């Protein structure tokens, strides 16, 4: 099981994905997801130009050693590009090793700790009414947890809300779109949206909302207090994530549960937030968090502090990365919730999943490996199309967090 090749395949079936393939001299192949939305080629270059040549000839069964070689062996550590690159390699190795043994990856992680994985979708609309219609339709499909977002009155384009009638996709233009942000309008609006959701649809489901890094700690505390009567499952990213200590202020002001982590990449990004119990859910996806090998460690630390998982599952995590999330969701003791945003139709012409999402729950069928097939010929029919995430400016033109 010597590594013969490490290749990167970047394609755009409906949206861009960066996939790493590792092949061994005995004919085994494993795939991993290294998609970093809008920065796909940076990860591709990191893997292809800097790491792939160093792994040829390595024993593919030594996942732990290869992880340490890629992380500890590099002087320049951490960060989204590096950790997504390491993740893609790590996922490909878990996939390959599980295929070699003829078992799903979760069996290598000790087996299932639950019968199904609870998933939440995105419910959204240009008005409160439209968002609630969407939410009601998802409840009718069987979902028992919903993320609800809607257009903020007075803010022309909002995070989580599509521009026209098409599905929402944040990276939708070649150069970054400039969006406009108004914190006051959001502070006025969100408690109304959440109140209307509970008034209209009741309390028989878990309710989530993503603030997308846009409040100060005191504003977040103010907001959390206003949401307390509506029993939120979580308020996500109330403040920018890089300031771990800011969550102490949010915590001191509200009992609303807080979910954070989709832009963290390493245990060192969240060590303080975890050990000081500043958050309730940790959202680092396998794809951006150094792979199964590293995220497992982060989730084990979180468990010691009573923090549960809420792994990011936006459309920019490929179906392979999602399956890697599920391998952990199945096996950890501290599972909380799994995001499942969904994919454009064309994505399914390249990726064939063996997981099922029905009635708001995810199940797997026992296929060896991560359980997602990647069709390289089909991928070649969808050449890479670069897309950027938007940027945010305030009304006065000053830059703001997106
Ligand atoms: C989001 C993402 O999934 C989420 O909660 O915050 O949609 C995020 O905006 C994208 O992953 C950015 O690429
Ligand atoms: Mg988010």
Query: For the terminal residues, how far apart are their CA atoms?
Result: 44 Å
Helix-and-strand structural type? alpha/beta
Number of helices: 12
Envelope shape: globular
Contiguous uncertain segments of 5+ residues: none
- Structure ligands: D-mannonic acid, magnesium ion
Q: Which bin fits the share of residues in helices? A: 25-40%
Please identify the top-level CATH class of the largest domain.
Alpha Beta
Number of strands: 19
Question: How would you describe the overall organization of this protein?
Answer:
The chain is an alpha/beta fold and 402 residues long. The protein folds into two domains: 3-103, Enolase-like, domain 1, CATH 3.30.390; 108-375, Alpha-Beta Barrel (TIM Barrel), CATH 3.20.20. It has twelve helices and 19 strands. It has helices at 40-55, 63-71, 80-101, 105-108, 128-141, 183-201, 217-227, 246-253, 267-275, 291-304, 319-331, 376-380, and strands at 3-11, 17-24, 29-33, 117-120, 122-123, 145-148, 178-181, 206-210, 234-236, 258-260, 281-282, 308-309, 338-339, 351-353, 355-358, 361-364, 372-374, 391-394, 399-400. The chain has a seven-stranded parallel β-sheet with strand order 5-6-8-9-10-11-12. Helix 2 (63-71) packs antiparallel against helix 3 (80-101). The radius of gyration is 20 Å and the shape is globular. The model has no long low-confidence stretch (mean pLDDT 97). D-mannonic acid binds next to loops. GO terms for molecular function: magnesium ion binding; mannonate dehydratase activity. It holds the Pfam family MR_MLE_C. Residues 128-257 form the Mandelate racemase/muconate lactonizing enzyme C-terminal domain.
């Amino acid at each position: 099981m010597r590594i013969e090749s490490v290749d990167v395949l970047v394609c755009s079936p409906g949206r861009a994905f960066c996939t790493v393939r590792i092949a061994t001299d005995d004919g085994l192949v494993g795939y991993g997801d290294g998609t970093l939305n809008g920065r796909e080629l940076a990860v591709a270059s990191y893997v292809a130009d800097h790491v792939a040549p160093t792994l040829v000839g390595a024993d593919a069964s030594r996942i732990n050693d290869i992880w340490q070689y890629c992380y500890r062996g590099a002087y320049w550590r951490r960060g989204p590009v590096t950790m997504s690159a390491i993740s893609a390699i790590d996922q490909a190795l878990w996939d390959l090793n599980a295929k070699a043994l003829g078992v799903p990856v979760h069996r290598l992680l000790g087996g299932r700790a639950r019968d199904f994985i609870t998933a939440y979708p995105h419910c959204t609309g240009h008005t409160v009414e439209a968002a609630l219609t969407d939410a009601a339709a998802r409840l009718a499909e069987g979902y028992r947890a919903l993320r609800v977002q809607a257009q903020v009155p007075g803010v022309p384009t909002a995070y989580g809300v599509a521009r026209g009638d098409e599905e929402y996709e944040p990276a939708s233009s070649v150069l970054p779109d400039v969006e406009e942000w108004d914190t006051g309008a959001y502070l006025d609006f969100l408690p109304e949206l959440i109140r209307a959701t509970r008034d209209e649809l009741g309390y028989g489901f878990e309710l989530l909302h993503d603030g997308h890094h846009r409040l100060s700690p005191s504003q977040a505390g103010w907001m959390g207090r206003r949401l307390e009567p509506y029993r939120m499952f979580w308020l996500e990213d109330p403040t920018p994530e890089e300031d771990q200590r800011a969550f102490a202020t949010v915590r001191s002001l509200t009992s609303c549960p807080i979910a954070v982590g989709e832009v963290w990449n390493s245990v060192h990004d969240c060590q303080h937030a975890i050990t000081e119990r500043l958050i309730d859910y940790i959202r680092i996806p396998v794809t951006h968090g150094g792979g199964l090998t590293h995220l497992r460690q982060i989730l084990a630390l979180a468990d010691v502090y009573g923090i549960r998982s809420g792994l990011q599952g936006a459309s920019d995590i490929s179906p392979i990365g999602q399956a890697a999330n599920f391998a952990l969701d199945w096996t950890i003791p501290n599972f909380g919730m799994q995001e499942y945003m969904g994919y454009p139709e064309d994505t399914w012409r390249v990726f064939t999943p063996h997981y099922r999402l029905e009635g708001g729950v995810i199940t797997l069928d026992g296929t060896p490996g991560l359980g997602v097939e990647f069709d390289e010929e089909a991928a070649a029919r969808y050449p890479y199309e670069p897309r950027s995430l938007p940027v945010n400016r305030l009304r006065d033109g000053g830059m703001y967090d997106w």
